[in-house]
Amino acid sequence: AGHVLGKAAPLVSAIPDELIESLRVRFGSSQDERAAAAAAASAGAGPGGGKAGDKATGPGKAGDKAAGMDKGGDKAAGPGKGGDKAAAAGGKGGKKAEPEGPPDVSRLDLRVGVITKAWRHPDAESLYIESVDVGEAAPRQVVSGLVKYIPEADMQNRRVVVLCNLKPANMRGVQSQAMVMAATSADGATVELVEPPEGAPPGEPLSFDGYPRGAADEQLNPKKKVFEAVQPDLQVGPDLVARYKGAAFMTTKGPCTVRSAAGGGIK
């Protein structure tokens, strides 16, 4: 006996045109076209347009990236770090260094000073420690290698010229906040203090004919070696007046002088 055949039926059901179209949009188009179709569908969905609508146009991550609200947008045009670097005028990148003047005596903060007290350095036989009035609220502490040349008694209450804008430095464990200017004779045997005239008040800045006043650096940069460039031209004239390239160390009461070291260098 043969097999009994049942009722014929189709193996594949008909696919509706709507399903074909949705599959074509979903898998056959580009990413942009799919996003546009999803956006159109969401627009007609109203408040019930859930995640698909949010991804397309809402405040989620995809929308943020498109609108420039996320980190990527900050980098492009927003006020983030990238924008700040490009547009911030007051930032580090936008600040220009002030131009420096030539290395001349106007860069040195030279003032009238008075040594109110001087004593021997406890750990260095050749050094004095001095308390110097330079017209500030407190005296400056200065360390000087003058023990071999000037007796301690002669260091007391001495009128001196002080270089005030050197970077403070430790000298055998004691900080020196300035430098007392002294002249060395041509043969190196004599060292003398450069002295302002009587009546010149402590703190008065010195002036030099032909050089601007008030142009001194706030603090000399040791790497620039400004003092080293100026110092060879600090000399004592034959008249015992301290000079820079012939211009006298001047105060309102007259020039600064030394006692005997004519022709000597000053430092």
Strand content: 15-25%
The total of beta strands comes to 15
The rough form would be described as elongated
The whole-number mean of residue pLDDT values reads 79
Helix and strand content put the structural class at alpha+beta
Q: Pick out the low-confidence regions.
A: 36-91
Largest sheet: 5 strands, antiparallel
- How many alpha or pi helices? 7
Order of helices and strands: HHHHHHEEEEEEEEEHEEEEEE
Strand order of the largest sheet: 3-2-1-4-7
Helix content: 10-25%
> What is the straight-line distance between the termini?
133 Å
Query: Rg from C-alpha positions?
Result: 42 Å
For this entry, give a set of tags.
267 residues; alpha+beta; five-stranded antiparallel sheet; 21% helix; 21% strand
Structural write-up:
By secondary structure, this protein is of the alpha+beta class. It has helices at residues 17-28, 31-43, 51-57, 61-67, 71-76, 81-87, 226-230, and strands spanning 110-120, 128-133, 140-144, 158-163, 169-171, 174-176, 179-180, 182-184, 191-193, 234-236, 242-244, 247-248, 250-251, 254-255, 265-266. The chain has a five-stranded antiparallel sheet with strand order 3-2-1-4-7, with no helix packed on it. Strands 9-8-15 form a three-stranded antiparallel sheet, with no helix packed on it. The termini are far apart.
Draw up the topology in text.
Blueprint: H1 17-28, H2 31-43, H3 51-57, H4 61-67, H5 71-76, H6 81-87, E1 110-120, E2 128-133, E3 140-144, E4 158-163, E5 169-171, E6 174-176, E7 179-180, E8 182-184, E9 191-193, H7 226-230, E10 234-236, E11 242-244, E12 247-248, E13 250-251, E14 254-255, E15 265-266
Antiparallel strand pairs: 1-2, 1-4, 2-3, 4-7, 5-6, 8-9, 8-15, 10-11, 11-12, 13-14
Helix pairs in contact: 2-3
